[in-house]
Automatic annotation (TrEMBL):
GO terms for molecular function: DNA-binding transcription factor activity; protein dimerization activity; RNA polymerase II transcription regulatory region sequence-specific DNA binding. Residues 200-209 have a biased composition (Basic and acidic residues). Gene3D superfamilies: Transcription factor, MADS-box. GO terms for biological process: positive regulation of transcription by RNA polymerase II; post-embryonic development; reproductive structure development. Its main location: nucleus. Residues 27-87 form the MADS-box domain. Signal peptide: none annotated. Keywords: DNA-binding, Nucleus, Transcription, Transcription regulation. Pfam families: K-box (PF01486), SRF-TF (PF00319). This is MADS6 protein. The gene is MADS6. Residues 113-203 form the K-box domain. Residues 1-30, 200-226 are annotated as: Disordered. SUPFAM superfamilies: SRF-like (SSF55455).
Amino acid sequence: MCSSSKLPATMEFPKQNPESSSQSKKIGRGKIEIKRIENTTNRQVTFCKRRNGLLKKAYELSVLCDAEVALIVFSSRGRLYEYANNSVRATIDRYKKACADSSNPGSITEANTQFYQQEATKLRRQIREIQNLNRHILGEALSTLNFKELKNLEARLEKGIGRVRSKKNEMLLAEIEFMEKREIQLQNDNMYLRARISENERAQQERQSESMMQQGGGHVYEPAASQPYDRNFLPVNLLEPNHQYARQDDQPPLQLV
């Protein structure tokens, strides 16, 4: 494999055309030698482009990575260009402090302690303000407020009461609508149950009539209607004399033979 990779001595490489080499240089961007640009115009144009690119990269770094960035650029004519997401002076002070703390490790702990103490003080103040505000809303400790503060408190309370009432009315309307729908549903269920009950009663009566017809051989016997009793009415045969039995006087006397 090594012998095959060697080129024969008689092989000649084609000569490159200078025009084609210049075209290839134009197509691809080659490396630029880092040195001072002698041409004033080109130097000024390059400064503007590079400066804008550097400021853009600093902005992207501060936004994407949440980093504190401070950029300071002086042109050859002495003009100042800067960018800082916080403040250039604050960033420089932080840089000086970090450089001083790096030489003294104990100062880092002191700085952290001081920072946390400041944060704790700030949080305690916020908690105290919130507690006072809650008392003011409940109508307590109003003697410390002036007329303007009382007026602002009144406006805030009225706005809050309006929101509470609107929410209450909204909930009441929703509840009324739900109850109306529930009433309609219950009425429909009641009508359905009544229809089912009437159907069951009709079916039961039909079954009873069929069973009575089967027991009576196909005829249904109904009891005769009882006549009302009249105590002033007597049968005729009770008033007439009985002809079957004659009196003793009408019979002939017995004779002894």
